[in-house]
């Protein structure tokens, strides 16, 4: 028996494996690294990173919000490839502090992120009016899609950011002053 007959997924094109991984919790994507040498490093280059409550290990005796931030920080610090999509969703019982989000966006800007989706808990109504976060996000020139849920932001009015933004979706989210999204075709 050959390795490919035992592991037919390893013979799939890497791009297809990445598409499959899009629908698998990031926790399980990372766990796949123990299957074989082929799988050991493939998760480090997955272009789409989606985090939700399924990303969090349930056996650790740490507050869930802390576990969530630790998981995202760990994956982003080890991830080596570009990230076309970064998504945080379905985290109703988690809290994301602005400092964590700033750190993630700084890392994502270096990874050429094109799609950023932040579905934050409605009860938190995270006030992302921290000027550092606002200017970091505003200078993310590669963004073509931005979805913000439960955020309030204040952006610098004197700059021209979001030059490639095509899709902007706000759900219980507000910008407290004018922004420049001249290429947006879907608002």
Please characterize this protein's 3D structure.
It comes from Aquilegia coerulea (Rocky mountain columbine). This is F-box domain-containing protein. With 187 residues, the protein is an alpha/beta fold. It has a five-stranded parallel beta sheet. Strand 1, helix 5 and strand 2 form a beta-alpha-beta unit. Helix 5 packs parallel to helix 6. About 3% of the residues have low confidence.
Summarize the structure.
The protein is of the alpha/beta class. Helices cover 31% and strands 14% of the residues.
**Main pleated-sheet profile:** 5 strands, parallel
Poorly predicted runs are 128-132
- What is the SS-derived class? alpha/beta
The domain count comes to 2
Total strands: 7
Mean pLDDT: 75
Please state the overall shape, judged from the principal axes of the Cα atoms.
globular
- Distance between the ends: 54 Å
Order of helical and strand elements:
HHHHEHEHEHEEEE
Q: What Rg do the Cα atoms give?
A: 18 Å
Strand percentage:
5-15%
Q: How many helices?
A: 7
- Strands of the biggest beta sheet: in what spatial order? 1-2-3-4-6
- Binned, the helix content reads 25-40%
